[in-house]
Task: inverse folding
């Protein structure tokens, strides 16, 4: 059965922010947007209709999807934005986007490939299922998101869209001016192509939303391993990186720390901890911090903690605390 493409409720706030920037009251549209909580699932037809209603209020604006996409912030994309921002470089960020795209769209749409001197991320189904306006907002958001993280990034090599070219040449020119590269229409894929050297550009970790998440993680780690020394702190940072990849094993942690499994085990023995105990303790404390962030769904949190599905996270959390994650979240909200 094919996956149904949708967006998260947090994404609808992007349109509300654009309405603010345009000083548009639009009470009916704002009322419709307000019905969606950050962790709700919004069907693509609903999102497309909201975009069309909003952009109809600015008929003189060329390529309105680009202007809306330019408003993007990490809070609009939830866990995917946080994981991308926490990446070491843009290459890791691109792979993180591909890995977590399902959380946002409910399906795996992106393909990443390398060809000669370029790297390409492409979506075959995106425009076919979403339409021109939705697709334009999505690609403009991706480029704007990356631009905000890197000072003076090089422009893409090429951007293409599945949907046909706009009727007016001025609108085509608006696309090329926005992206700073050639833009083609009517392609077999919607794609973004970058120079291969783009992948090594470091991410600066400067976003306030990311900083808040990292601060919460630090607090959680202090509770998981109080009185930690330098080695413990390095181990904790390794666990934070391995957990979302569902690869937090003793062997992987030892490899990341450049020590033998025996050395790492000896360190844990000195603390009277097994690897599983440390893993459970870290996951529990991180889970409590993540549950306080309403932009993260329980499914998001499960993946951040390295669980393959939400039900496994629910069972583990009940074992740690005697309560369900949903109940703890309600308590935190009260």
Result:
């Amino acid at each position: 059965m094919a996956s149904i493409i949708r967006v998260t409720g947090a994404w609808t706030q992007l349109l509300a922010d654009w309405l603010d920037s345009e000083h548009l009251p639009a009470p009916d549209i704002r009322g419709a947007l307000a019905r969606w909580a950050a962790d709700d699932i919004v069907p693509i037809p609903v999102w497309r209709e909201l975009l069309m209603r909003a952009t109809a209020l600015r008929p003189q604006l060329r390529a309105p999807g680009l202007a809306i996409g330019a408003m993007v912030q990490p809070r609009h994309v939830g866990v995917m934005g946080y994981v991308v921002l926490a990446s070491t470089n843009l290459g890791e960020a691109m792979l993180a986007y591909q890995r977590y795209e399902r959380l946002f769209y409910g399906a795996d749409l992106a393909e990443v490939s390398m060809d000669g001197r370029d790297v390409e991320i492409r979506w075959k189904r995106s425009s076919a299922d979403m339409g021109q306006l939705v697709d334009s907002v999505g690609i403009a958001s991706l480029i704007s998101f990356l631009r905000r993280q890197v000072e003076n990034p090089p422009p893409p090599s090429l951007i293409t869209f599945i949907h046909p070219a706009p009727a007016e040449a001025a609108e085509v020119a608006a696309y090329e001016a926005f992206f700073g590269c050639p833009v083609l229409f009517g392609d077999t894929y919607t794609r973004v192509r970058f120079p291969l050297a783009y992948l090594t550009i470091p991410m600066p970790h400067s976003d306030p939303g990311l900083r808040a998440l990292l601060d919460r993680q630090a607090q959680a780690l202090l509770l998981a391993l109080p009185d930690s020394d330098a080695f413990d702190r390095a181990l904790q940072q390794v666990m934070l990186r391995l957990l979302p990849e569902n690869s937090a094993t003793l062997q992987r942690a030892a490899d990341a720390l450049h020590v033998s499994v025996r050395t790492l085990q000896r360190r844990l023995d000195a603390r009277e901890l097994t690897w599983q105990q440390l893993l459970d303790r870290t996951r529990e404390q991180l889970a409590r911090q993540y549950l306080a962030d309403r932009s993260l769904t329980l499914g998001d949190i499960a993946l951040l903690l390295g669980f393959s599905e939400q039900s496994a996270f629910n069972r583990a959390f009940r074992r740690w605390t005697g309560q369900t994650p949903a109940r703890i979240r309600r308590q935190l909200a009260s």
Notes: The radius of gyration is 22 Å. The beta strands are 6-8, 41-43, 110-115, 118-123, 158-161, 183-185, 190-195. The chain has a mean pLDDT of 85.
